Amino acid sequence: MTSAFVGRDGAFADVTQALRSGRSLVLIEGEPGIGKTRLLDEALRGFADHSVLLAPCLPVGEPFPLGPVVDGVRRLRPMPSRLEFSPLAGALRPLFPEWVGELPPALEALEDPRTTRHRLLRAMTELLEVLGVSILVIEDAHWADSATLEWLLSLCASGDLCTSIVLTYRPHDVPEGSLVRRLTARRPVGMSVARVELQPLDVRQTGELVRSILGADEVSEQFATLLHQRTDGIPLALEETIRSMRERRDIVHRHGEWTRRTLSELRVSPTLRDSVLERVERLSDEARRTLEAAAVLGEPADMDLLSAVAGVDGETARRGAARGLAAGLLRDVDGGRLAFRHVLDATAVADAIPASERWQLHRRAAENLRNRDPRPVTRLMRHLREANDLSGWSICAEQAADLAWESGDDHTAVTLLLDVLSGVEHSVQAQVRLARKTGRYAAAGGASFSATATNVTTALRTVLAHPDLPADDRGEIRLLLGRLLLQLGQFDVVYQEVEAAVPDLAARPVLAAKAMLSLAMPRGPWPVSTHLEWLERANELIPQVRSRVELMEFAVDRASILLMLGEEAGWQVARDVMVDAGTVDERRQIARALVNFGHLAISWGLYPQAQQFLTDAVEEIHAAGYSRLLEIVSSTQARLDWYVGAWHDLAETTTAVSKSADSLHEARIEADGILALLDMAEGRQVAGKRRLRDLLDETGRRGMVDAMIVPAAALGRSALLDGALDETLEVTADLVATIARKSLWLWATEVLPVRVEALVTAGADADVDALLGQFALWLDGRKAPAPAAALATCHAVVAEARHRENAADLFADAAAAWAALPRPYDELLALERRGRCLIMAGLQDEALALLTDTERRLRGLGAKRDADRVARILREQGAEVVRTWRRGPQGYGDRLSPRELEAVELAARGMTNRQIAEALYISHRTVGQHLSKAMRKLGVSSRTALVVAASTAGLLAAPEQDASDGDR
Known about the structure:
- A five-stranded parallel beta sheet has the order 2-3-4-1-5. It has a two-stranded antiparallel ribbon with strand order 6-7. Strands 8-9 form a two-stranded antiparallel sheet.
- It contains 46 helices and nine strands.
- Helix 16 (377-386) runs antiparallel to helix 17 and helix 23 (509-520) runs parallel beside helix 25 (548-564).
- Helix 5 (146-158) links the parallel strand 3 and strand 4 (164-169).
- The protein is globular.
- By secondary structure, the chain is mostly helical.
- Helix content is 63%, strand content 5%.
- Residues 261-270, 885-890 and 958-968 have low confidence and may be disordered.
- It starts with 8 loop residues before the first helix and ends with a helix.
């Protein structure tokens, strides 16, 4: 029986039109059995002259990264002979071991799994281009692995893809947190989007489908209506029901139309399973055995594998397969393999097999797949588990975890290892090995660790509780646990675990030194002196370290910790770190050093040096393939931009970091802090305070004292301006007490001026003098411009509160100190205070001139709330203030904004969106928005046309001429 293509004319037209236009993303969604595959098959018939890569996804528990695409490539091109690859294609070797003779040499291993994955995805994109694929089809994307979905996201975001992409998926089966949602919710760069949502057939269409299946001119209206009611118009259920009824001879041709013998007795099976099992039971024993084997395998299989799993000879299996094909249960898959026509059919058959027989079938499947080359680890793992061979399954699952890790899929690797640790009893040695891998993979996984955090830490603690655990292994696992707890921000527990690990690591100096360096980090409960003691103990172990990379790692950590603790000697250690790097791992240490030093230079107030560190860091990160650090650079750059007054586009670039799934927790917190400060400065007080309170609650709960500074200081200053003195005292009390107790005065720059003003207003003069004395003592002899400017501000605040005549001069000194950094916002706030003091001293003309200029500069900076406050002072003094009508960001009408023009100029140089993003320190999504706005303003719809239009309009600068050309 064959069925007509019914009720899908509109959907068919949409799909084919999108594919003919090229560079399209076609989304086909619908419930199981609705006809997504049939629609796709019909549409692709018109593209027989195109290279189509079909990649169906399968419902496996832990899918192999990029597995559907890899299998699709193998079917499209079994061997890559006569194809030209770049060296990047060497990253494909783990996925295509049978191609090793044709692929470039393997690339150097990368430590960061996300960098490994990024490189692999780039290699897959190159493979797509080399194969000349014009249409990429991902069927059942709701079952796709994360690597496949990430690759699709990168393709859609590239902006220069020449391939159309088709996705079929079941919206209700998309797992929570799946990247499918991101794919379907965002408009891809440079691609059109066609979304097709398939609906059930109506009664009329149901009748048409039934007529086509039966080859009849008519079916009774009652029969069509009842069929529609019982099947809800789902094409698959209709087809299966009609086939079953016809085989049972329950329908007859009467008076020129097909109808049920007794209409009232019509029993269309309420589930597809009943229909499938009924059809299977009527087949021969050899057919049932072949079908059961196919159902247990769950994936397309050749006849050799089917016969081996079924336990029958080849001829018997072929006869059984022929009957399965004739019954419409099996289908011929390209490449001479067979599979069930529908996944639901296979599930129904597999579930009906008695458990003991099903175990045996899975055992045979595992035995035969084990000898395949390449070895299908994921499939093998499933069959071993279903066969209750837990020992074999655990070995295979660990291998699958290692493969996932090598492919950059740290989440799958950790999930598999946790399953192995908890699912099988292991020896102590095996537990240690698995715990070590789990901890390392989870710690290196960065942002994805949060999804498995509780299970990972529980698993490591379970292993630690083993009474026979060797001391050095216990120490290593404790150290790993400490690293993971550090990522979770559980600092109170971190130091307990790491300190307990030190004695156990006496025989392993490298690990012992790492533990001691962790304890030297200033987030623990101890004063600076104790952190320095741990740092010195770690330093004593350095002579026992032989690896150059580990020596560089320790040097970077030592310099960073010294600078965090406010020790100026750290800058000399930092200079010593900057050596020539010979390997990728060494370059990564240099990149990490540059990021750390850039961040710390900001805290010290060395802003030009900080900018240089960050600029060099970006270059080194790209050279070392260490992309996981880019978001940290972006958040640090945002912090520097805030201080130096580069607020244009700051909210946009910082939001990208805050919302990015790739951002580490510390980067998101820093970005959220900058966004809150912008809200407050621009007058969005409700939103700003809400952000600040949420940030203060989170950082306080996680013990991140240094990250509490920004929200505490901003909330305290806002409360002072509102006259809420008690609130300021409360919000700054614990933080300043911690800074004083630990002697971490480098952290005092933001919060101490606020705390001092609150205390002096409250009359707590003794507390003020004590704090400023300690701060000045620490600062004496140190070149720390930002803390020095903060101390100058504190002295001015105290002088003003105590009505001293030199208050105005002291605020002038503070403003000059901020300006020298440069830090214009704080400079202007100090000048505002100087103006107030001048008014109090009766120097009105000087004060009004100063405040007029201050108001103008504050408004130009974007500090609306502060500018309005200064304007109010001026009006109170009788000065005329020009009212500025602000309706939001500057509008450019049909003209390109400066940022849009920058993006167009870089696009004209042939740079991709990601390259433009890196050059402008913004997200690639923001680049896409700039280019889209530019296209709209210039009336074009493609990237090429945009460049031509911009050039014709004279918007693009002439290419810079080489100096040698000018001399000719």
